[in-house]
Amino acid sequence: MDTIKFAAVSRNYFNMPVWVARHTGLFEAEGLNVAIELHEGVDEVTNRLRDGRVSLAYGITEHVVLDSEAGGRLEIIGGNVNKLPFSFIAGKGITRAEDLRGKVVGVSSLEAGSSSLVMKLLEARGLSYPQDYTIRAVGPILTRWAMLQSGEIDAGLQGAPLDYIARDAGFPSICNPRDEVPDFQFTSLNVDGEWARANEGLMMRFMRAFVRAHEWFFTHKDATTAIAVKETGVEPRYAERAWDEYTSEHIFPRDGDASSAAVQALIEISSLIRAVPRRSKTSADDYINRTYLKAAWQDLNTATASRVAS
Predict the structure, then answer these.
(1) Looking at domain 2-82+186-309, which CATH architecture does it have?
(2) What is the rounded CA–CA span in Å between residue 84 and residue 106?
(3) Predicted confidence (pLDDT) per residue in 234-270, tens digit
């Protein structure tokens, strides 16, 4: 059994495909022990991937774009959160975006991720950063939810299923970002390209399990819900609602692929806030390496055809 270290953010529903692969034995079937590390900081996940402490990660896609433009080796090799699963949740007593004037909005990171999206959403509602409100880097959605309840922040993006819990507890939703930004590659399966090329055999085994886990997720609601309850700690009713949203809206990609349209939307929104001078790559696909995903799909299709023929 070969070990691969994998980093992800918090006990977040975003991690369901790799949890599915572990719980259902898909990694084990490929002779892999995937050691999943969970970190509260989104920057920490990318830093650990960049310096080789982990081999693969579910990380902020914008980090890969910025790393690539800086001459780094990070690559997007698969999808994860291809569409936004968030509601913009505010503290009780705040009912409109205008009420956030002079308030504090919590984000995962000032350098990438939700901060550029928050700025775009509030700019469309007449609020400019930093004149009209403060952005504070506090961490991922679990931390933001705790801080919203304690009053340490006044608003923040909350992902399913935590946004259901927040609304049921009386916290208002200012907007649904997916209504305004239909495609947005928030997180993706990322790798150090140099490590991947040096470990193609491990990559192929991981990617076959990765592809199969996505199909399993889409076709096993009850079993997926049980895994979600165990790994995230949410109540079954909320885990069921999350599965409904993630499958009906194709937030996770059924084929495991990143979305070119979603990466392009990310680049365009990010460039409004963090313009990269003299961008060296001109299209979203320049940041995506689909070599391993395509090879995994080819292997699986060949195996299926052989079983049918026999």
Answers:
(1) 3-Layer(aba) Sandwich (3.40)
(2) 17
(3) 999 999 999 999 999 999 999 999 999 999 999 888 8
